[in-house]
Amino acid sequence: MAFIPSAQRNRAADAVCVRANNGVLNIYSGTAPVDADTALSGNTLLAGLTMAATAFGAASAGVATAGTITADSSADATGTASFFRIFETGGTVVVCQGTVGTSGAELNLSSTSIVAGGTVSVTALTYTQAKGT
To answer: Is the residue at 91 inside a domain?
Structure first.
């Protein structure tokens, strides 16, 4: 595959991210599936957060940054967050999957240790469109 110039990476990122408008950000524990097409297997849903009506700002250099994400005021389960999936409105069609951490991950939380009934809020979330290989 050829490399994709920045303008096209921005367009591709924007096309993906618009699918997250009014979507759901689910945070899971366990080993992340190999890709977003692979079914979940033995993963625990820790928290579900609501994406904004305009979930991401316009991409720059192939990177789109999420806007405000509504916190989950009552986490579903206790565990260590390891990955996330964003779903379109309705919660069944996967938009993307990524890593979770406290810094340097695609989804950053103040802590990856989530406690059932606790509040889970996002520090930062980005989507990066690959340049190609």
So the answer is: yes
